[in-house]
Amino acid sequence: MTDRPICLITGGSTGIGAACAILAAKRGYDIVLNYRSDHASAEQTQTKVIAAGGRCALAPGDVADPEDIARIYKVVDDTFGRIDALINNAGIVGQSARLTEIDHDRLRRMFDVNVIGAMLVAREAVIRMETQGEGVVINISSAAARLGSGNQYLDYAASKAAIDTFTKGLSDEVAGQGIRVLSVRPGIIDTPIHGKGGEPDRADRLGPVVPLGRKGSPDEVAAAILWLLSDEASYITGTTLDVTGGR
């Protein structure tokens, strides 16, 4: 076991999740790093976490699969025996499309991962945090939740709007048990998710239209998340923080 607080990060092999893992290790956390399939990138992030002073256990699994979620938490329980923070980051985006081009299979997968999976992962964290009498859950939403992303990622935007509502409801349920629940809405951030949506240059293309005039970095989002995890944010719960450059 360890005296350092334990943070589970889903979708942590690259992008915002990886940046959170490295910064959290620098701030004194040990990490359980979940990823679905990119084992090589997860190992690279694990190496950086260890170099930053943290222990890091890898926990592969698809958050859309309840059995995989159980396996992820078995790593948490067997390796560290507790969880102090959850960064509920795993998510997917589809190819840019209008609603008339989106079929049931895509919608089912989008909501299985981005909404149902996130809720089930949070449920398991809360079960453990309630016995400890404290903990923080950070759900990763998106500026798309309030922008709608019409003609682009309407289904993704709807899934992230659900995350914002879930954040508020869960925060009300568990505040009395000493658990804080928040959501962070990243904007145009330079991560691999744009390539997965078929637009690898999207951050570069849209960065200039952001009020601050540029794209954001995963490290900037991670800094906001780690602040929300900290005691400096101890009186903040049930709210959503935009990290969008003013967009």
Question: What's this model, at a glance?
Answer:
With 247 residues, the protein is an alpha/beta fold. It is built from nine helices and seven strands.
Distinctive features:
alpha/beta; Rossmann fold
Write the layout of secondary structure elements.
Blueprint: E1 6-9, H1 15-26, E2 30-35, H2 39-51, E3 56-60, H3 66-79, E4 85-88, H4 104-132, E5 135-140, H5 144-147, H6 154-174, E6 179-186, H7 193-196, H8 202-206, H9 218-229, E7 240-243
Parallel strand pairs: 1-2, 1-4, 2-3, 4-5, 5-6, 6-7
Helix pairs in contact: 1-2, 1-9, 3-4, 4-6
Notes on the protein architecture:
- This protein is α/β, with parallel strands linked by helices.
- The protein has a single domain (6-189, 218-243), classed as Rossmann fold (3-Layer(aba) Sandwich), CATH 3.40.50.720.
- Helices cover 46% and strands 15% of the residues.
- It contains nine helices and seven strands.
- The chain has helices at residues 15-26, 39-51, 66-79, 104-132, 144-147, 154-174, 193-196, 202-206, 218-229, and strands at 6-9, 30-35, 56-60, 85-88, 135-140, 179-186, 240-243.
- Strands 3-2-1-4-5-6-7 form a seven-stranded parallel β-sheet, with helices on both faces.
- Helix 1 links the parallel strand 1 (6-9) and strand 2 (30-35).
- Helix 4 (104-132) runs parallel beside helix 6 (154-174).
- The longest helix has 29 residues, at 104-132.
- The protein is globular and about 50 Å long.
- The termini are far apart.
